Amino acid sequence: MSLKARLYKEFSRSLHIARMKVRNPLYLHLWFSDQKRTKIREWDIRSLDVGPGREYVLITLHNSYLTSMGGIEKETFELVRWMVRRFPDVGIIVYFYDVNEKKYVLHHVLRGRMQHAWELSDTADGERVLRSIVQSCKVKLALLEHLQWHSLRYIPILKAHRTETVLFLHDFYYYCPYKYMPLPSSSTRKEVECNLFSKDAICDDCAYGNLFPNIAISDWRHEMKRILSDKDITFICSSEYVELKYRELYSLSDMNNYIVSYPNFVSRIS
Amino acid sequence: MNIAFVGNYERYKGSHIFEQVVTQLGHQHCWFIFGVVKDPVRQLDGIRTYGVIHKQFPWGGLPRMLRRNKVDVALLLSMLPESFSMTFFETISAEIPVIASDKGFPAFLLPQYPYFVDVEKGSAPVINAIDQLSNSQERSRVRKIVTEIKQERLPEMQQKIQLKYNRIEELLSRKD
Question: Mean pLDDT across the stretch B149-160?
Fold first, then answer.
């Protein structure tokens, strides 16, 4: 990316952040605390708990909910704000991957104040981090907003710790993760096209798959079907269309634990 | 007409189709892009000569931006099915006629809306729809449809926003 483009991107991001800070004191506080992240190693997570017996909600996300301008990130910020108001004594742990910094980050928020803003070292492993979190504090509820940059294997870990789990189906990542990956080089970008849902016949053998040999799509879908059929998990779909597509794509029959709840588009249009 | 491409300006959102449309219709219309363009220097190079204006909007700022710039028609040309499409409903709330992809939730929810197009066929259906909307009578007819959608469907949709919070509340209140 050219210098001009980089400057432009940074300017746009700064403008977005400045507008949010003016409008929202919680955002202002979280953003400033996030600027002063402490670098930690995985074993430091053991000091996450600030009080014995306290209950926690864990939120996983694929990007920073404070600096990215996407809809899911906005939803996550709204969720944190709602949690702070509705359950002030419940600790909130937001575990996200900062795409710009290429680091896993942990935020611990209690009563609207940031307790910890931690940035994990480069060697941190997503699954080990999650295991450390659930071992160090009582996570009552896990809200998996997105698992991109994270792992499907979080779910069995949470299950083993008897943590209630909610998986948000915001998009079709859980059908095809390829489309959400950054392509290996810009030259290949032009060569691959994806027609998700229109050419299902070639989907198992798509051009994207060749770019990501580490993800065997058949294994991925096998694991996903097991997860999506799990009666102990609550699934929140962002629309009836998403629910219908997952039902068709994975031949799901009983979907009593699926809820359709739209993103908060009202606050965006008010 | 003032025509705006809304949302992230990326290939899978149909940026290449917009490029073809602008190149073919040229100076007949005023063109805008409202959304994030990752690399504006490179991405907008081919269409800059047609006076394309690029602006970015903050969370919630799209309806105001559309109105302020007197946009007549919005374009949402996503190649991949949209799971919800906040941008579509924000455009509807601004009461602007929109030409949108026939893939995804908007087309699923509003099958009667007349301006969903098959973007897989390239720029032709989009240009055809723009031609039809160039007629001011047709534009006011569609604007009326959009206003009806805003008044009848959006309030009903708002009720579904709360459901996830209710469920989370129920799970958190559950005793171990």
Answer: 90
Burial class (CB in 10 A: 0-12, 13-18, 19+), B97: buried
Across chain B, mean pLDDT equals 89
Q: How far is CA A44 from the centre of its chain?
A: 22
Q: Please tell me which residue of chain A has the smallest CA distance to B66.
A: A269
B93 near A CB under 8 A: yes
Partner-chain contact A90 B105, CB within 8 Å: no
CB atoms within 10 A of CB A11: 11
With b for 16 or more beta-carbon neighbours within 10 A and e for fewer, the B26-41 pattern comes to eeebbbbbbbbbebbe
- Which domains are delineated in chain B? 2-150 (3.40.50.2000)
> Does B40 contact A195 at a Cβ distance shorter than 8 Å?
no
Beta strands A91-98 and A103-110 are antiparallel
Q: What is the ipTM of this complex?
A: 0.90
Whether residue A60 is contained in a domain is answered as: yes
User: What is the span of the domain harbouring residue A252?
Assistant: 27-269
Query: By CA distance, what is A9's nearest residue in B?
Result: B38
Q: How far is B119 from chain A (nearest CA, A)?
A: 11
Q: Are strands A138-144 and A233-237 parallel, antiparallel or unpaired?
A: unpaired
**Is residue A49 in some structural domain?**
yes
A12 occurs within a structural domain: no
Contacts for B65 with CB less than 8 Å, ≥ 6 apart: B34, B55, B57
Q: How far apart are CA B160 and CA A117, in angstroms?
A: 33
Structural domain count, chain A: 1
Q: Nearest Cα to A152, choosing from A167, A164, A163?
A: A167
Residue B170 tokens read as 């129920």
**Least confident interval from A22-36, A139-153, B107-121:** A22-36
Hey, CA dihedral for A245, A201, A145, B104, is it positive or negative? negative
